[in-house]
Amino acid sequence: MQSFELDKTDLQRIKSALEGNDADLEKILNEYHASEIAILFEKLPQEAKEKIISILPADFASDVIAEMDEEHHPEDILINLDPEKRTEIVEELDDDVATDIIAQLDEDEQQEILDDLDHEDASNIRTLLSYAEDTAGGLMTTDVTTVNIGMNKMEALDAVIKQSEEQEEFYTIFAVDDNNILQGIVSLKNIIKSRHDVMIRDLVVTEFVHVQADVDQEEVARLIQQYNINSIPVVDEHMKLLGRITVDDIIDVMQEENTEDILKISGVSEDEELSGSWQDAVKSRLPWLVINLGTAFLAASIIRSFDDTVKALPIMSAYMTIIAGMGGNAATQALAVTVRRISLSDLTDNQAYRTVLKELLVGMINGASNGLIVLLVALFYDANPMLGLVLFLAMTGNLLIAGITGASIPLILKRVGIDPAVASSIIITTFTDCFGFLLPLWVASKLLL
Amino acid sequence: MQSFELDKTDLQRIKSALEGNDADLEKILNEYHASEIAILFEKLPQEAKEKIISILPADFASDVIAEMDEEHHPEDILINLDPEKRTEIVEELDDDVATDIIAQLDEDEQQEILDDLDHEDASNIRTLLSYAEDTAGGLMTTDVTTVNIGMNKMEALDAVIKQSEEQEEFYTIFAVDDNNILQGIVSLKNIIKSRHDVMIRDLVVTEFVHVQADVDQEEVARLIQQYNINSIPVVDEHMKLLGRITVDDIIDVMQEENTEDILKISGVSEDEELSGSWQDAVKSRLPWLVINLGTAFLAASIIRSFDDTVKALPIMSAYMTIIAGMGGNAATQALAVTVRRISLSDLTDNQAYRTVLKELLVGMINGASNGLIVLLVALFYDANPMLGLVLFLAMTGNLLIAGITGASIPLILKRVGIDPAVASSIIITTFTDCFGFLLPLWVASKLLL
């Protein structure tokens, strides 16, 4: 299929086809990729989606369901379908995908769906439902090709081909013993290429990366990325093979984790859906704003305590907002670089120490540079060299503090087990605001009054 | 291999082994995965790295080179190696990896390496060097398995196996005609499963996603993610097959793009390396800070123009910093959500319109909520109900403006072809600072003076 952009015409076409007969509708739907229909679903009413899924053949319908974003609730379609059709669709789904969708339903509804499935699918999905969603167990599929290390080439090839019927992909093959204990990995290429009398035992690679079911998905993503592998086996504590995670699952995890990082660093709750309702947005953001308001009062109380200075030098009122604001900007820069470094790899003590030192230096230099500009403005615009000196010192000091806190706060939070992206920016803004007011007012009270 | 954490012991072990004889060193190195040695390299001096690469067998050495982060300059090792060994290593590298490394060298040095390679590798790398690094062409490998649609099963299987010698992965197979024009994709599974007399022609899937060599890597990542495919063929304008891009390449692209997004939204140049020098950091961040200083002067000039109000009501000086700061925070929230939405998918006009409307509403509600708190403080702490009213109105107004600008500025920038992450936060802070001072001072000058 040509990769093309969906537009209003496509939506219109399907909407009109929905008025006509089922055969014509199915013909039109067949021109689209399942993922495109999933995108069009975002703009169709619930009844239309249910009608489309019910007239599509089960394998195509299951692809569409699988491609739907969980934000758009594929489970709502599934639960309203004719039970026979629903069973067909669920059995076509990869069991990890089916699990994610079914997990969104009430326990009664889950039961209703699982009772209709064949024994193996139902038991696989029940197992997967027992893992937490954001762990390796919640991410893996149990559709995994295995060969016994006691098989010879033709037996193995037969087994692989037999199992491949069920699967999209069968390239990475895991070798297990009679007790399903993982012995290593073997590539299909090597099986096909080997002589007829070779045993899998002789072909297997016994050094390989694997994870246990409770490993965090971020760690799985890091391993897959670090080792450049296409799939990773999931095992229990006795190395019994439970399933595998493929790289395409990891891509979604990474986008999700990255979205969370960007939101958290900006003071938005990680649970806020990007295209969620305004009610959700208020619920996710208002608490952070109220905390920020508290810290803003703290900063403002500093201004109040220098009431005499402000009255005597009303011009400080404008300049100190510049110094506080610039501190916030510089701190945000240092924070972004540090948070991103932490999220890509763990830093050693020495690396952490050098990061803070670097940001201190960068803050001081950037502070002095901007301080110089402000000094020149005070000199030529206000004709007040002492004011210039006060502002230069305050700007340099505040950006130095911005650099130190921007780098050290996320590192400290990480060490004590708090997500550095969440709380960092509030703590740091508090520092740069407080010092942004304190430094110019205090230096001014010493040098100018 | 067990997935384990590297620590100082590992580094120490290798450092002491470097003092001993080569055989012992090689034995110790063999206990590590290539990607682990690449990580240890980050802490070793240049001579040590060159020594290790020169004593490792070429296939292992090339894996280490391939796993090195480009920030740590694998090309510096390559260029100093004995030419014979270097040629062996480069020929072992996937040609897309070799290209990325060689691209970092001077033209003379590139020539020196390419002249020693066999004709095919040299010509592949020369072709790849001609594409821009962040395009599909720059990302793809030319190691691609093909079968002719005129082949029968055994011929195809033979061809696949023959080509697979050169490759890590040979699962997705592309079917071409006599002129190397891409006809479709065929799965190895289907070839193996089919009867002996079946033609590839009958097995090929003619609907598939493909990209041209100049498509941006972000778009390639989006396609691979959208269609959940493991590799994507790269073609020229006549559908002639040029190569393929695999999903593991895309993971790195995504991490890179996400790092850029987080940095840009925080006012850091996207070129700044996370673990770069302080000089680079100053160069990357100072320009943004100076621009910010300009906009801060703009905001401060508003305070100056209300000199009389500030003198008559010095208390405003503290409160207006709260209102400006809260506007900045609320705008950052709206900005993060909108920028992330844009980077994950294009918004239709209608979606864009509804996004701005939603953020307007969220801003107004959050503004009124925080405004109410400030009103109560003014009422009970300052015993000044009119001041409370002024602050309530100003807070609500500024957070409403924050919501509108936070959502609309990135959408507008995107439409006019400017990267929304780059300039948005500066423009938006300018709005929230200016209105954060203007609104309370102006309303106060009307109601309180």
UniProtKB/TrEMBL annotation, chains A, B:
Per UniProt, residues of the CBS domain are 199-260
**Carries keyword Cytoplasm?**
no
InterPro entries recorded? CBS_dom (IPR000644), CBS_dom_sf (IPR046342), Mg_transptr_MgtE_intracell_dom (IPR006668), MgtE_N_sf (IPR038076), MgtE_transporter (IPR006669), SLC41_membr_dom (IPR006667), SLC41_membr_dom_sf (IPR036739)
Taxonomy, superkingdom: Bacteria
Q: Which PROSITE patterns does this one have? A: CBS
- Sorted alphabetically, which keywords does the UniProt record give? CBS domain, Cell membrane, Magnesium, Membrane, Metal-binding, Transmembrane, Transmembrane helix, Transport
Stated membrane topology is: Multi-pass membrane protein
Recorded family membership: Belongs to the SLC41A transporter family.
The protein's name: Magnesium transporter MgtE
